[in-house]
Amino acid sequence: GQSLEQPSEVTAVEGAIVQINCTYQTSGFYGLSWYQQHDGGAPTFLSYNALDGLEETGRFSSFLSRSDSYGYLLLQELQMKDSASYFCAILRADSGYALNFGKGTSLLVTP
Amino acid sequence: SQTIHQWPATLVQPVGSPLSLECTVEGTSNPNLYWYRQAAGRGLQLLFYSVGIGQISSEVPQNLSASRPQDRQFILSSKKLLLSDSGFYLCAWGRRGEQYFGPGTRLTVT
C-alpha cells in the first residue's frame, strides 16, 4: 500500500517562509504533487515533482528526494491569503495516473 | 482552456434515497477522470477513475458506482444512500501529476 504523512497544522507569520514536509511509503510512483484548498473550496494544483530536486513557481517551491522518500512545499513571503490546507499526493504508477492524497496540513498565517 | 462543471453544488438527501452526481469537462478530449470524496476536515479519498469511455476502476467497494457514458461526462451514482455517504464530492480531470477539480457537491445524508 501507500501512505503519506504531513504535519496536521502549521502556523507562521505574514512575510515569513514556511516549509511543509511530506514523507511517504510506496512501492512505486511517478511523482509527488501539491495542492492547496481554502475552506469550503475545491483543491487547486500547485506543483508537481516528477524528478528529484527543486521546482519553483513564483513564491512556491516544491522538493522531492526519492532516496529519502521525502518531499516538501516551501512558501515564501507569506500572505494572509495563503492560510489554507495543503495536501501532498503521490501520482500512482499502477494505472490511470490516480493520486493518493495525504491528510493535509492546515496553514494559518498570522499578522 | 479547460473547464470542469459539477452539479448540484449542495444536496440534502434522506437515507435510502438514490443519488446521481454529474460532472462534465470542456476544452479537452479523452481526459482521465476521477471522483473523490472528502469527509469534513479530512483528506481526499479516491473513489473511481476512468481512462476512457465505459472504462471505470473502483477504489472503494461501497454502495457507490460510476459511469462514463460520453468522453467528457462522468457520473457518480448510488441506489440507496447511507449516512456515511455524507461528504464533499469532487470530480477532477488530469494529466500526470496535475489534476484539476470541479467546484464539488456537498452532500448531506439525513
Describe this protein's structure.
The complex is a heterodimer of chains A (111) and B (110). Chain A is an all-beta fold and 111 residues long. Chain A has strands spanning 3-5, 9-13, 18-25, 29-37, 44-49, 53-57, 60-65, 70-75, 84-92, 99-101, 105-110. In chain A, the strands form 2 sheets. In chain A, strands 2, 4, 5, 9, 10 and 11 form a 6-stranded mixed β-sheet that branches. A 5-stranded antiparallel β-sheet of chain A has the order 1-3-8-7-6, with no helix packed on it. Chain B is mainly beta and 110 residues long. Helix content of chain B is 0%, strand content 62%. Chain B has no helices and 11 strands. In chain B, a hairpin with a 2-residue loop joins strand 7 (64-70) and strand 8 (73-78). The model of chain B has no long low-confidence stretch (mean pLDDT 93). The interface between A and B is medium-sized, with 26 and 25 residues.
Notable characteristics:
heterodimer; A: 111 residues; five-stranded antiparallel β-sheet; 11 strands; globular; B: 110 residues; mainly beta; four-stranded antiparallel β-sheet
State the end-to-end CA separation of chain A: 41 Å
Low-confidence stretches of chain A: none
What are the segments of chain B in which pLDDT stays under 50 over at least 5 consecutive residues?
Answer: none
Please summarize the sheet with the most strands of chain A.
6 strands, mixed
User: Largest protein interface?
Assistant: A-B, 26 and 25 residues
Helical percentage of chain A: under 10%
Q: How many DSSP H or I helices of chain B?
A: 0
| Distance linking N and C termini of chain B | 38 Å
Can you count the helices of chain A? 0
Overall form of chain A:
globular
What is the percent of helical residues of chain B?
Answer: under 10%
Topology pattern of chain B, helix = H, strand = E: EEEEEEEEEEE
Proportion of β residues of chain A?
over 45%
Mean pLDDT of chain A: 94
Task: Write down the secondary-structure element order of chain A.
Answer: EEEEEEEEEEE
Shape, principal axes of CA atoms of chain B: globular
